[in-house]
């Protein structure tokens, strides 16, 4: 753990140096506006679209995003996709592990799972939290420049390399949330499987 933490610290320092010294000449626009996302995915209908407070949006620095609920049979899945054309200090993807506990949610477990999708197996994060009697099940991953990554460590490493070699730092955070139950797990897996091909139409590879 100590070696991993030290290595992560070195990578973050290197990434900070790259951000300051290497000019990214290729901000990459999203393929298609996320507000044009399908009204139905895996039998779930789009029922609500939210908009961030302008101050929050400015702080995050996100260039395009979707905050919505997809529902079927009174079961709803909260979907967030936040896309950055160019990541830089003050405008970068942040892990849900950093912000959700700040809202009073206590982490119960965190692991990487594999979802079989039409595009092949994808590794994503499974995160379980609790507040009082409520539990939330969260799936999330980092997607950009043709990669799907669960680990924040790997995402930062690829981001560093792609900024140096490709002059690109675009990327997205994809996060899904449901109230936890055994049935919710199965339904969330099915929705996630169907979501990956949809994202290909919006996020640059």
Q: What is the radius of gyration computed over CA atoms, rounded to a whole number of angstroms?
A: 17 Å
Structural class: alpha+beta
Quantity of strands, as a count? 9
Report low-confidence residues grouped into runs of 5 or more.
none
Question: What is the helix tally?
Answer: 5
Assembly annotation: single chain
Q: Characterize the main sheet.
A: 9 strands, antiparallel
| N- to C-terminal distance | 32 Å
Q: Report mean pLDDT, rounded to a whole number.
A: 89
What can you tell me about this protein's structure?
With 205 residues, this protein is of the alpha+beta class. It has one domain (2-199). 31% of the residues lie in helices and 37% in strands. The longest helix has 20 residues, at 2-21. It is globular and about 50 Å long.
List keywords for this structure.
globular; alpha+beta; 205 residues
Write the layout of secondary structure elements.
Blueprint: H1 2-21, E1 40-41, E2 44-50, H2 54-60, E3 64-72, E4 75-84, H3 96-99, E5 106-117, E6 120-131, E7 134-144, E8 147-149, H4 152-165, E9 171-179, H5 182-199
Antiparallel strand pairs: 1-2, 2-3, 3-4, 4-9, 5-6, 6-7, 7-8, 7-9
Helix pairs in contact: 1-4
The gist of it:
This protein is an alpha+beta fold. It has helices at residues 2-21, 54-60, 96-99, 152-165, 182-199, and strands spanning 40-41, 44-50, 64-72, 75-84, 106-117, 120-131, 134-144, 147-149, 171-179.
